[in-house]
Design goal:
The structure holds two protein chains of two kinds.
Chain A: E1 3-12, H1 53-65, E2 69-70, E3 78-82, E4 92-96, E5 100-105, E6 108-117, E7 121-123, E8 128-130, E9 137-143, H2 150-167, E10 178-186, E11 192-197, H3 200-219, E12 227-232, E13 237-240, H4 243-246, E14 253-254, H5 265-274, H6 279-290, H7 294-300, H8 304-313, H9 319-337, H10 348-359, H11 365-377, H12 382-388, H13 396-409, H14 411-418, H15 423-435, H16 442-456
Parallel strand pairs in A: 11-12
Antiparallel strand pairs in A: 1-9, 1-10, 2-5, 3-4, 3-14, 5-6, 6-9, 7-8, 10-11, 12-13
Chain B: H1 3-12, H2 18-36, E1 39-42, H3 46-58, E2 70-74, H4 101-108, E3 112-117, H5 151-159, E4 164-169, H6 175-181, E5 184-187, E6 207-212, H7 215-225, E7 255-258, H8 260-265, H9 268-283, E8 287-290, H10 299-314, H11 327-330, H12 333-345, H13 352-375, E9 378-382, H14 397-401, H15 408-413, E10 416-425, E11 428-436, H16 441-454
Parallel strand pairs in B: 2-3, 2-4, 7-8, 7-9
Antiparallel strand pairs in B: 1-3, 4-6, 5-6, 5-10, 9-11, 10-11
Classes of the chains: A alpha+beta, B alpha/beta.
Chain lengths: 457, 455
């Protein structure tokens, strides 16, 4: 059965100030109703300040990131969208007409990007409203219904949040920063809009539920009516919204207190020049330029700072080695510490130096990994860390001595090996490793023991 | 020198005490305003403010351009610590938590704020009768309405309860009561005076302006409140204006437009006064030119559609959650009528039919007035087509809206307009309206000044 899914995704922009007043936008960090002023609480007579340029620029950059055309040199009205809710201090929300249109991300067409202001936060149980969030800038991204399954939807939302996080202009997901409405229709049924989705995971679950619900209806020969439903996160189901909420007429009018926006070509070009490369484009380029596998590249571009780090390191060591390390060891260590690449303190030069030691076989990959773990918590030269950890690399002559000593002392195992029990070799390698306190490279040792024993035969 | 500037000089020279004057005014208001009802609330800090100014004067400190002058404020402008009620039950307990930009400016110039003035509820009215605090009397024509909506602001000037008033004009609310009360009022060009802190009626039409006993007083107050602020979007790129030093240039050679359309819409008794005023202006050397205003009468219905939609939007915040009372539940008839009209015509299905059409007619009227003003310096005619009715007479809404035919075009076009007394009909003042180009306040003031001197 053919399924069509489209999204309206809201994300908060990471600006210092609110959209139409000078209150700080860090609403989560302060006691309720302290980041407020007459403007963002809608006091009688208060008028909006000119819109926050940072927010407009961010919306433009996000549009560009999603491959959109920015609507330049034309009038973009900021409209009042009227509805009655306790968290909305003026009884209307200011929302711009589209700033960017006709984009594309991973095969999903982006219909438009526009700017909105967040309302306050209403706690219906306590009957309280916190206006700290009121006026924080939001960007709304509207897609065409090009998504065909909940899995695709989840993948799309991941790619979307990644692309937006790349810009550094949105607040990271979590803490209610991402909110989405989704519309979904099955072949032969009406379009259903589901509101109140607060995470990628929630979208996935809501969609699975809706498909099941609509499918059953259609199978029973019932009609799926066009309607608006709300997702209940706690129960993982969707329920119809009250008729009043659906029939709402927002009575849009251009806000008479604001000049319409007008975006110049120069501004767009200036933003384009300094913005980061989009992650899906960077993925393609990194695969081609460094000739690494897609699996590693996917991990590397998952965070902008991780990709930056990779490209710097790959200038100094084999990109293949770097890619392997990024995909496995580095990612593992960062995950262990719950760190994002943006949080690392060590330099790309330090990481490159470490990988060079491994590349030149001065240390083993195992030693390298120990150093890497240390590097994350104590960022300094890998050589200094080797010293600190007591991992001074052994000279080849020392290792040779150890190997010969182990062969001398373990003649029964040597005989076993020579009589065809190949697993005896593992024992011998283990003995050398123990004697070297783990400083030798087991692969090298295995090779060398085999050589010696073959010669001696 | 006119009365206002003369008082300012006396205060500066220390010949009259600021505190003494404020005390006198308060006493007079307490005694005589029971009858007039021009104030809703007096400023308990007025004496303290006067003392501060007096101290500055005595110590020889530099004082502001309004030093010691007593200003009354219409109740839809936020004055920190005073109630900005909009003469409505909805906001009867709303104590302003901040100063409007114009209030900051007059405080900066050492004015003393004496109190909050009565008005039509939310500035919805042309008679001064829709206030939840009771109607205002016309001191210049006892028993009659003072006009509105800045009813208290004009009446207080006519009664001598303050030196200057701050009124607001969305469709004539400064000019209409100035005409009926025989005082001077100016509606500035849209975007000249900051609206930050003015409680909305129609955001694309509202302007704050001065009401004064003389032209110089109005010019002085306008000089102080005019000019842009970075804190507001929809403002003209004007930093400061200067009128007082250039008022007395006379009007010789000025081109003054007038239209036969005015007479079609206006009571002949009023037109007789206006025609006489035009003769005087001609005698003073102005050239009187007839201009075409074929769509003038379309302005009134257009205005009521636009103002209702904007007012509907502006009043959504009075939802009963923050100020205690939901506007629809406690407001008067006219306010409710406008909210319901606005809600109705802004509905999705009617947008094209009413609101969009109204915006188109607004453009038409703006273009018509601009075209007329290309050929002349100012347009001169009557302010209100009818004489003020007797308090207590019941008018239908359409009869009430009929007062606004001649004032709303300036708001729709965003141009400026001033009013000065031209004469009387049976003892009732009649105001001459002078409309100017965008930012043409100086030309308007020159004509007003010339007219004032003929009296």
């Amino acid at each position: 059965m053919r399924v069509k899914i489209g999204f309206e995704v809201h994300l908060q922009l990471k600006t210092e100030r609110k959209l139409y007043c000078n209150c700080p936008a860090n609403y989560q960090d302060v006691p309720p109703n302290t980041n407020v002023c007459p403007i963002c609480t809608g006091m009688p007579g208060a008028k909006p300040l000119p819109p926050n340029e940072q927010a407009i620029d961010a919306a433009i950059e996000i549009g560009l990131m999603l491959g959109c055309r920015i609507l330049t040199d034309r009038t973009i009205y900021i409209q009042r969208k009227h509805y009655d809710y306790p968290d909305l201090p003026s009884g209307y929300q200011r929302t711009s007409q589209p700033i960017a249109v006709d984009g594309e991300l991973s095969g999903v067409r982006i219909r438009e990007v526009h700017l909105e202001e967040d309302p306050g936060q209403y706690d219906p149980v306590a009957g309280r409203v916190d206006f700290n969030r009121s006026g924080v800038p939001l960007v709304e991204i509207v897609t065409e219904p090009d998504i065909k399954s909940p899995d695709e939807a989840r993948e799309f939302l991941k790619l979307l949040t990644r692309a937006l996080e790349y810009t550094g202009k949105v607040r990271p997901e979590g803490g209610g920063a991402m909110r989405a409405d989704v519309n979904i229709s099955l072949e032969g049924g009406g379009r259903v809009e589901v509101k109140n989705i607060n995470s990628i995971h929630g979208a996935f679950r809501a969609l699975n539920y809706e498909i099941m619900r609509q499918k059953r209806k259609l199978e029973r020969g019932e009609r799926v009516e066009r309607e608006t439903r709300a997702y209940l996160e706690s129960q993982m189901i969707t329920v119809p919204m009250r008729a009043k909420e659906m029939e709402e007429d927002y009575r849009y009018i251009p806000d008479p207190d604001l000049f319409p926006l007008r975006i110049s070509n120069q501004k767009v070009e200036a933003i384009r020049r300094q913005m980061p490369e989009a992650p899906h484009l960077r993925f393609k380029r990194i695969v081609a330029q460094y000739n690494i596998n897609e699996e590693a590249a996917e991990v590397i571009v998952s965070e902008r700072e991780l990709a930056d780090l990779f490209e710097q390191v790959a200038q100094r060591v084999s990109p293949h080695l770097a890619a392997t390390w990024f995909r496995t060891k580095l990612k593992k260590v960062l995950n262990y510490h719950g760190m994002r690449a943006a949080d690392v303190k060590f330099t790309s030069a330090q990481l490159a130096e470490l990988l060079q030691l491994v590349e030149r076989k001065e240390i083993t990959p195992e030693q390298g990994e120990l150093v890497l773990r240390e590097l994350v918590v104590d960022p300094r030269s890998p050589r200094a860390l080797l010293e600190k950890l007591g991992l001074k690399p052994l000279k080849p002559a020392d290792i040779e001595k150890l190997i010969h000593a182990v062969i001398e002392e373990n003649q029964p195992a040597v005989r076993d090996y020579l009589s065809g029990k190949t697993e005896a070799l593992n024992f011998l390698v283990g003995q050398v490793m123990r004697a070297s306190k783990g400083k030798a490279d087991p692969r090298e040792i295995r090779k060398r023991i085999e050589e010696i024993l073959k010669e001696g035969r | 020198m006119g009365r206002t500037l003369e008082i300012r000089e006396q205060i500066r020279r220390g010949e009259v005490s600021v505190v003494g004057r404020v005390q006198q005014f308060i006493e007079r208001i307490k005694k005589e305003d029971k009858k007039i009802n021009s104030f809703i609330e007096l400023n308990p800090q007025a004496i303290a403010e006067a003392e501060r100014v007096e101290k500055k004067l005595r110590s020889g400190e530099r004082v502001g351009r309004l030093a010691g002058l007593i200003v009354g404020v219409k109740s839809n402008i936020n004055v920190k610590g005073l109630r900005a009620t909009c003469a409505s039950r909805t906001l009867e307990d709303y104590v302003a938590p901040y100063d409007a930009e114009v209030i900051k400016r007059i405080r900066q110039e050492d004015a003393v704020i004496i109190g909050m003035q009565n008005m039509d509820e939310f500035a919805c009215g042309s008679s001064g009768e829709t206030s939840a605090f009771g109607p205002t009397q016309n001191p210049a024509a006892p028993g009659r309405i003072p006009g509105g909506s800045s009813s208290g602001s004009a009446a207080a000037i006519a009664a001598g309860f303050c030196d200057l008033s701050l009124g607001t004009d969305t469709g004539g609310s400064i000019r209409n009561p100035s005409s009926h009360c025989g005082v001077v009022g100016i509606k500035p060009t849209y975007g000249l005076v900051p609206r930050q802190g003015l409680i909305d009626l129609g955001m694309s039409l509202d302007q704050i302006g001065p009401i004064a006993p003389d032209v110089e007083g109005a010019a002085l107050l306008l000089e102080i409140i005019a000019g842009r602020t970075q804190n507001e979007c929809v403002m003209l790129p004007v930093d400061r204006v200067e009128y007082l030093s250039r008022l007395n240039r006379g009007i010789k050679g000025m081109r003054i437009g007038t239209s036969s359309k005015f007479a079609e819409l206006t009571d002949p008794k009023i037109m007789a006064v206006i025609d006489k005023a035009l003769d005087k202006l001609r005698d003073l050397g102005a050239e009187i030119v007839e201009v075409e205003l074929p769509n003038l009468e379309k302005a009134m219905p257009t205005y009521y559609l636009i103002v209702s939609v904007e007012f509907f939007s502006a009043t959504r915040k009075y939802d009963g959650r923050k100020y205690g009372k939901r506007i629809e539940e406690v407001c008067g008839e006219e306010v409710l009528r406008r909210i319901l009209r606005g809600a109705h015509i802004s509905r999705r299905e009617y947008r094209g039919k009413f609101y969009q059409r109204a915006l188109q007619v607004r453009t038409l009227i703006r273009e018509e007035l601009m075209r007329a003003l290309q050929h002349v310096d100012v347009l001169v005619g009557p302010t209100v087509p009818k004489l003020p009715h007797r308090l207590g007479d019941k008018l239908t809404p359409m009869e009430m809206y009929g007062y606004d035919y001649l004032t709303v075009p300036a708001n729709l076009a965003g141009i400026c307009g001033g009013v000065i007394k031209a004469g009387e009909v049976n003892g009732i003042p009649v105001g001459l309206q002078i409309q100017g180009k965008p930012l043409g306040e100086l030309d308007v003031l020159r004509v007003m000044k010339a007219m004032e001197e003929t009296a």
